[in-house]
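Fold this: Integrase core domain containing protein
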Amino acid sequence: MERMMEGMMDQKIQAVNKQLDAFELRVLERPTPTMDLSSFQSELANIRADVDAILATPTVEP
């Protein structure tokens, strides 16, 4: 009985390890995302300009 339980546990452990290996391979096969730094800097500059315009104190002309 004890050997049967050990065999079942070994099978379960092997199945889990197989799934972990498959997951690791899927993660490693994913291409790394590329980021265009110049477009990111341009977008950031646009956002800063928008925030500056929102926060600017309105001037009232007489």
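The mean pLDDT is 85. Residues 2-55 form one domain.
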